[in-house]
Structures are given as C-alpha cells and as structure tokens.
Amino acid sequence: MFWEIFDFLSSKCSTKTADWLMSQTKHRPQVAIICGSGLGMLADTLKCQDSFAYSDIPGFPQSTVQGHAGRLVFGELKGKSCVCMQGRFHMYEGHSLLKTTFPVRVFKLLGVETLFVTNAAGSLADCLQPGDIMIIKDHVNFPGLVGLNPLCGPNDDKFGPRFPAMSGCYDKNLRCLAMEIAKQLGVAGLMQEGVYAMVGGPNFETIAEARLLHRLGVDAVGMSTAPEVVVATHCGLRVFGLSLITNKVVKSYEDSDSVNHEGVLEVGRLRSHTVQQLVTELIGRMEINNNNTNNAA
Ligand SMILES: O=P(O)(O)O[C@H]1O[C@H](CO)[C@@H](O)[C@H]1O
User: Using a 6 Å cutoff on CB, does residue 261 contact ligand 1?
Assistant: First the structure.
C-alpha cells in the first residue's frame, strides 16, 4: 500500500513538474546536463537562457551543498536545445534516491534524448592526476549493490522495464567522439577512460576503504552520478559521463595529504574552461536520434 501511494505520487509529481516547466519556457530540450561540484559554469555557455531557481519549480528538491547553485537553466548550445542542472542532489543530503533522481524523469518527460553527467571525483588510479578528466566507461554503484537503488519499489512501466540491463550504459559512440574532440582541442593528454564508483559519503574515504576500492579496479570515486545514470538508462536515455579528477585519494599511511571540499571546488574552477569546451563541442557534433518517443508522458 505504502509503495503504491509512493509510486503514484512520484509519477504524478514528475508529470506536474514537466508540465509546469513547459508552460514557462519555449525551449524543448534534446540534451540535459547535470553539473558536478564546482562545474556549474557549464550552464553559462547556454544561449537564449531561461532559468528557474529550484525553489520556484513545483516538486523540485533543493540543493544544500556548496558549489551547487540550485538553478535549472534552459538554452541553446551549438544549435541544440539543452537544459542544465546547476546543482545536483546527493543521497547524503538526506534526499531519498527517488528525489535525487527526480529531475532525470522530468527530463524524459520534457523530451530529452541524451543525458550528460559530470562530477568531481578522487582518483585511485595512479595514472589519473588532479586536473585530469576521466571519461566514464562504467560504474560501480555501491549503494545500489546493497539495495539502495532508485528503481526499488513498484516499477513504473511507463518509464522502463522492471529489470533493466546496465551493460553499455555509457554510450560508446559518444565516448569515442569525446576522445576525438579532445585530440583536436589538444587536451587528449588530460583524458582517459575509467571506472567510476559511487560511495554514500558524505565523509571521504579511509585509507583502508581507498585501498579496497583500488583493488576492486575502481579508477575514480565520488558520491553521486550512479543513481542518475541508472534512472536515465531505465527510461531509455543515452548517457555520457565525465569525472573531473579533483584530488588523489590517500592510499598510504605515510601520506599526510588530506582532501577537502574547498580543494575539490578549486580544481573545478581551474579546469572549467576545458570541461566547457569539451562538452560544447561534443554536444555540437553529436547526432540526435530523436528516439525519445516520450512513452512516459
Ligand atoms: O559528485 P559531485 O556532485 O560532483 O560532488 C563530489 O564532490 C563532493 C565532495 O567534495 C561530493 O558531493 C562528491 O560527490
């Protein structure tokens, strides 16, 4: 009974939010971008902007983390209609996973076909340095593996199947195109593909946890992204993801370094221009399949 009411309300709520947004803006986005910590400037490149504070959007959660402004910005980038979240929601803020991923379903209802996710992450791989940009090839959803998954509860068949496949959830063609663009921009030296892992946060990892993640084959770790990608893949969106490496995760008891959120935001500011260039070029050059038939509407 609880789940039925919960499911009914969340599905109704995303429709209400999408309808409200469509009544407030003429933009009909094909691409949605979620900005990670310190990467909110991606929204500044959009032309002909319409923007809304999350607090003014019916049903939208609120951002509480520094570096996440809490604005939804519509506009155009290289001739493509886009919507950009300047600020995402994290499980550690106390949002349910359904709330955390709520905007993704709203995007689906708006007609979005491709989701760009960006995040700040700590590197475990020795070859990834602060300032490098990792194209996400795959993820390990640690909360999801123990049942903290936004798709738990009754399945909403309007959005997707009960048991969605997650292999190949980061689109291969977009990953290849991104690498090609990086070469043309002369920043290929900063870029490589890797595996992102989501942990619950909000504390950064202990040394033992860092060593465990490293041994498991994780290249970069953060506290977001996987739930958004799971929900996007469930409802048939194409996904492209970038992690900006903001720090090395401490893996040695001899190492006196320690990570903090200010430092994470600072690297975001330093690399903002490159991330912006990559995302803009990729959006400009990618083909839109228009396969969002919007069955969920
Ligand atoms: O994943 P994003 O939102 O980019 O932020 C990352 O940076 C914050 C920690 O500094 C955490 O929220 C972590 O997930």
Answer: yes
Q: Indicate the CATH number of 2-285 among 1.10.10.570, 3.40.50.1580, 1.10.3860.10, 3.60.15.10.
A: 3.40.50.1580
Ligand 1 neighbour 21 (Cβ under 6 A): no
pLDDT-based confidence at residue 6 (cuts at 50, 70, 90): low
Domain boundaries, the chain: 2-285
Helices (H), the chain: 2-24, 97-100, 102-110, 142-145, 172-185, 207-215, 226-234, 261-285
For residue range 31-53, what is the model confidence (pLDDT) as tens digits? 999 999 989 999 999 999 999 99
Q: Let me know if 95 is a catalytic residue.
A: no
Binding-site residues for phosphate, in ranges, read 37, 68, 88-90, 120, 224
Q: What is the pLDDT of residue 153?
A: 95
93 is catalytic: yes
